[in-house]
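Quick one - first record:
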Amino acid sequence: MRIGLISYEYPPQQGLGGVGTYMFRLAGALGNAGHEVHVVAGPSGSAPLEQANVTLHRVAARYEPTSANRTLRWVYWQALAPLMGWMHPAIWHWIKWDLASRKVIEELHASRPLDLIEVPEHAANGWMAGRIHAWPIVVRMHCPWELFARINRFPFNPLNRALSKLERLTVARYADALTVPSMAMRRMVAHSWQMRRQPVIIPNFMDVPAAPEPLPTDEDSPLIVCVGRIEPLKGQDTLVRAFATIAARYPRARLRLVGPDRWPGIETFAQVLHRLVPQAQVRRRIEFTGILPLDRVAACLGEARVAIIASRGFESFSYSALEAMAMARPIIATSVGALPELIEHQGSGLIVPAADPETMIGALATLLGNRALSQRYGLAAHQRARELYDTPRVLPQVMAAYGDATDFYCQVRAAGSERTAIRWRNALAAGRY
């Protein structure tokens, strides 16, 4: 198949999130399986990473109206664009990229006709592909912007509402197949989203090593690693408070925070750390790495004695948890979103309430104080990752969704209407034809 992936996020980029990680691993898996993959992605100052059978098309977030009406063009450049940029620079940047992507998608399809496109709901990246809709479209829901904004308590902004409406429009009108990474995500959208197709659960995935990575030796200083954007949603403030309490009991323990510092307000998280952890000697044992490429994230987890996902907001899956599982690390995770689906409490890790430093302290003491238990949890986590989330296990599910999207797309066009096509499909499923 010739497959197009449309995603603003795609590594290497600054501030990369789970959407980009998923798309990168999806492109690599499809390319390794022999498919021709074309990725339309946002700008990046770094050289592309080599992937077999994958062609990357970087698109700048620059849009110029094509209307010949000089008045409309003047209104855009002198009024609309400056206003939108002032209201919310990041969202306006994404919307401009969405608009700019249309020309690139059309040119790509004209030169190398595509069989299917997959897009995330994130930032309405599939909006322009949906407007064209010359191929089946699979929409992957990661975490809608309205939920992200609510969890992080962003102040009201009309562009937050506008972006959410564009995401909803893409899901409601253009999804020939709709996938979600977890049961928690499916439950979240089932009650409040209008969906063209019912969502199918296909978990996020990665290449899980065949052999588990051994825990660091007891001679090493025990390292606690938390991977994720540093923001209220991810709960690093709860984690550092718990670490400050337990630090005296484990004087050689260190805490490493991996990810971009996006703490809201005029101060970074590193700057507010002195208020969360008053003891200077404890603050010196907390490391900030900033953004790291995927291979260095794996290396950090390889050094870890314990991995923590401290989120207090919704997690639709958590690549951080899967990466720790793949490295055979015992995990402490909060009971939010899909985390209890990934990690079995007292089986492959420990589940604790969100925003509860006291319970987190107890979980840290349990794992730091019992190497045999930590090793058992880590091995179980690795086995679970191999069985459920390894690329060869999940890619057939992706291809099945692609086949279903293609069938639905072709049936709608053959029937001349979506309602008729759905009646046909229901009759076929019931064995009436």
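second record:
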Amino acid sequence: MASAETLACSGLINRLIEAHKLLPMVPPAVRLPDAATGAEPDPARARLLRAGLRLFSQQGFAATTTRELAQAAGVNVAAISYYFGDKAGLYQAVYFEPMGDIDDSIAGFSDPALTLADALRAYYAPFVAPLDDGEDGLLFVKLRLREMVEPTGLWDEKLNAGIRPMHQAMVAVLCRHLGLAEPDDELHRLVVCLSALGVHLHLGRDVIDAVAQQLNQAPHAAARWAEGLLRNGLAMVEQERQRRAATPLAG
């Protein structure tokens, strides 16, 4: 039987899902292909991806049938096997394809030739870009929240394939800029705090709208957020630099 804590957490996540105010937990690097725009060379595959995003995010993996997916996409049920192998293959494609190539994202901010400002600007870019997205952003966060509540194993895969490598890459960037031979726990905490600035734009979207709605409605809101993240990120790193110079940590 599930513990009271687990049930309470599940209830909270389900309320968040119904709130319809959140954007992606880990912002996708690209949107799903749109058959109507010609971005996807195979329109049937594109329709299945979009049907999967909508149905999986609204109903979860287990409750969504292949028949529903095929009907929503306007294709034969056999098309799911043809393009993705099975329903699990379609779910995996919907979950991971919009993230793009994680190696490209890491390369964008980890180049040793970049200044700290340029590295942080590139690091925050994927967090800011989805602020201009519409329905896709909402559906992606719902899908990720459902994966946490009704796990299929993809969340652990995402941690290993995306979140952990990005964290380690930023740790290496800050080691270089702070002149550290090895990272310590305080440096890991700093990277978590830097990431939290970007994550809150999405997980805290309803809070931001409640306390200062104009921030997300102002002209060029995404660009203003990008500059704010950069400015505050630089200040956090500088404070850590000064703290280490005044009181060096042992390990």
